[in-house]
Design brief:
alpha/beta; disordered N terminus; binds adenosine-5'-triphosphate; binds iron/sulfur cluster; binds magnesium ion
């Protein structure tokens, strides 16, 4: 990797991403409802947080809130989002746009919807770089070439003047990663980046993300339905259920001894399930809709350990580095 790709590791205590008490609300007045609540976590430089949870649990709303890309009608109604100590929550769109280009990169499931079909790859990667750094056209082209090489696009000199439709799905995702990295961001958010790809290509893309995370000291959030993916690549795991974090721990601790019954059920389903987009075979029922979240623990209606007490108030956080919200947590290692 070239010296230019390397980002100096900052040792400031506030380096990386820090989210405190984040709340996202859709609508206003009496019809308003919260889809993300009391979410607090941090992702230091050089670490990958795996964000998992069933469909509708609020993963993408969290990601778009961090990036200032929430859908129309929704907003950050409370809390703080800091990147390297700078507050981002509710910054004006004009300023967020600049930060998204320079300091935050994003990769989504479908690269085609994010790539401009009528622009060559050299320009798509090079333009934002030119815009944010004031580089010349030939410098931007050089940077695009360097990035294509970095993300493993074969024969990059020849591919620079190709258009997105001339690339395969996996290669397009590599191009998206190159675009996201063009300005050497501090934070990279990948929301289901490999769902549309076959298993071999999936592994290649995730290995690439992991290498870049380590080499560039990026803070990475990997959002996925697939628990086996986070098991292999993430350093920390956060499980969301019905808009809240239910458990957050270093990956090793999480997989060895999950404390929350929901996490436990998810893990027991891995061999058969892997993909949380499907129904959970071991747990009856489905997650509640945000308009009808129950007052206490949101998992209570489906939880085999639930008692009356669980329905009274949302369980406070317990544990230190391995944090969970449950009144009757599991003890000990997974069988
Ligand atoms: N534009 C929108 N308008 C209204 N409700 C929305 C909108 N986008 C998401 N929601 C609701 O917000 C909640 C969280 O959705 P989100 O997309 O964050 O879930 P997710 O965890 O990313 O799910 P998936 O795994 O299916 O991508 C869901 O209940 C969803 O119905
Ligand atoms: S608080 Fe109660 S209902 Fe909720 S997960 Fe724990 S045991 Fe189950
Ligand atoms: Mg989503």
């Amino acid at each position: 990797m070239s010296a230019q790709m390397q980002t100096p590791v900052t040792d400031a205590a506030d380096a990386g991403l820090r989210v405190d008490n984040l709340e996202v609300t859709i609508g206003r007045g009496r019809g308003a409802f919260r889809v993300v609540e009391e979410l607090s976590f941090s992702v230091p430089p050089g670490r990958m947080l795996g964000l998992v949870g069933e469909s509708g649990s609020g993963k993408s709303m969290t990601a778009t809130a961090l990036l200032g890309l929430l859908p129309w009608g929704s907003r950050i109604s409370q809390g703080s989002v800091q990147l390297d100590g700078r507050e981002l929550a509710n910054l004006p769109e004009r300023r967020m746009r600049g930060l998204r280009g320079r300091e935050m990169g994003m990769i989504f499931q479908n690269p085609l919807s994010s790539l401009n079909p009528s622009m060559t790859i050299a320009r798509q990667i090079g333009e934002p770089y030119r815009l944010y750094t004031g580089a010349s056209e030939s410098e931007a082209r050089e940077r695009a070439l360097e990035l294509l090489r970095e993300v493993g696009v074969p024969d990059p000199e020849r591919r620079l003047d190709d258009y997105p439709h001339q690339f395969s799905g996996g290669m397009r995702q590599r191009v998206m990663i190159a675009m996201a990295l063009a300005c050497k961001p501090r934070l990279l958010i990948a929301d289901e980046p490999t769902t549309a790809l076959d298993v071999t290509i999936q592994a290649q893309i995730l290995r690439l993300l992991k290498r870049l995370q380590e080499e560039m000291q990026l803070a990475v959030i990997l959002i996925t339905h697939d628990l086996s993916l986070v098991a292999e690549y993430a350093d920390d795991i956060m499980v969301m259920y019905a808009g809240r974090s239910v458990e957050h721990a270093p990956a090793q601790d999480f997989f060895r001894a999950p404390r929350h019954p929901y996490s436990h059920a998810l893990l027991n389903s891995i061999p058969r399930l892997g993909d949380l987009g499907q129904r959970l075979a071991d747990i009856e029922g489905i997650p509640p809709a945000p308009q009808a979240f129950p007052p206490g623990c949101r998992f209570a209606p489906r939880c085999p350990r639930a008692t009356e007490e669980c329905g009274r108030a949302y369980p406070p956080p317990e544990g230190g580095e391995h944090r969970y919200h449950c009144l009757h947590p599991l003890e000990g290692d997974r069988a």
